[in-house]
Amino acid sequence: MNVRVYVVPKQGILDPQGAAVERSLPNLGFQGVSGVRIGKIIDLTIDGAGSEEAARAQVDEMCRKLLSNPIIEDYTFEITEG
Amino acid sequence: MTAVSPLRVGVVVFPGINTDGDTHHALETFPGVSAEYLWHKDTDLKGVDGIVIPGGFSYGDYLRCGAIARFSPIMQSITDFAAGGGLVMGICNGFQILIEAGLLPGGLIRNTGLKFVCRYVNLRVETADTPFTSACDKGDVLRIVVKHNEGNYTVDPATFEAMKANDQIVVRYVNAAGERAEGANPNGALDDIAGVCNEARNVFGMMPHPENSVEAELAGGADGRRFFGSMIDALRGAEVTA
To answer: What residue numbers bound the domain in which B73 lies?
Structure first.
């Protein structure tokens, strides 16, 4: 199974990179852009997890323990058959 | 005169840490103190009396600063050591590692200026009631350096209120006059926070680098001695009562 994890700065926490990009977009003529948040994508493959449910539980644990820091980041992920 | 038994302080070494040598040297400028390197793959703390996690770029800062180091074998031993009341101080990346390990509250994110900052800052001691600042008076202003890219301290509002109530904010960025002011905070940290301790007060982390200011005859001054000196005094006290 292929997994794509999205990690973004937690809502309410300042994202200095996102803020800088947001400030520069109007200079290129893009008006009305707000809420720019910069995060990361982590792709991984899981073999032998059995069911998608089991894989989902594994990935959720990975996200909580290592892939994200829940104090400063939010995560979501999607699983597709590989 | 009673002979003082040598005090042994551990300096943790992760791959990518680069101030381990400076920290080792800083500790040994104190008479009767022996610094011991503790390798990240070991679990043995070699019977040290206290621990300093130095700064640098453990594991290349991959994923998040301190995120990988947190899972190294030595960190489990350090977590147990801290749970037993042992004194643990984290400097810069060491602070980030202690945060990732959950030994200190909050988070450290990218500097608001998006730049690596390397300059002197003025720190105001907000509490002398910790084993790391007991040699200071509340309100003392100390001049030492910062050098980091992710030193922007943040914490959720509820925890922040609890930290203030428990007197856990140990040092803040101020101007030379000791006042909180525009431009004094190098990284955008919440409430100008430069260093915090845990509720039990035995774990302390700070972004600035006291190990670079331990010798008055050198350019960096000696204000950093106050943090190590406090810790060493506290450890000596513990030895006497033990």
So the answer is: 7-241
Mean pLDDT of chain B: 94
- Cβ distance of A71 and B156 shorter than 8 Å: yes
Cα–Cα distance, A79 to A46 (Å, whole number): 10
Name the residue range of residue A20's domain: 2-80
CA A29: distance to chain centroid?
A: 28
Domain count, chain B: 1
Give the active site residue among B92, B126, B148, B150: B92
Could you report how far apart the first and last alpha carbons of chain A are, in Å? 5
Average pLDDT estimate for B188-207: 98
Q: How far apart are CA B76 and CA A9, in angstroms?
A: 27
With respect to residue B49, please indicate whether it lies within any of the assigned structural domains.
Answer: yes
List chain B residues with CB under 8 Å of A67. Answer: 63
Q: Which whole-number Å values give the CA distances from A36 to A14, A29, B64, B128, B150, in the listed order?
A: 11, 16, 20, 41, 19
pTM comes to 0.91
What number of other Cβ atoms are within 10 A of residue A50's Cβ? Answer: 10
Residue B98 Cα, gap to closest chain A Cα (Å): 13
| Spatial separation of the C-alpha atoms in residues B58 and B137, rounded to whole Å | 33
- The verdict on residue B2 lying in a domain is no
Q: What is the pLDDT of residue B237?
A: 86
On the question of pLDDT at B5 being above 90, the answer is: no
Domain tally, chain A: 1
Does B65 reside within a domain?
A: yes
> A16 CB near a chain B CB, below 8 Å?
yes
pLDDT surpassing 70 at residue A21: yes
ipTM: 0.79
- B1 domain-assigned: no
Q: What is the CATH number of the domain that holds B58?
A: 3.40.50.880
Contact (CB<8Å) B111/A16: yes
Domain containing residue A29: CATH number: 3.30.1280.10
Total Cβ atoms within 10 A of residue A59: 23
- Burial of B20: CB neighbours in 10 Å, binned 0-12, 13-18, 19+: buried
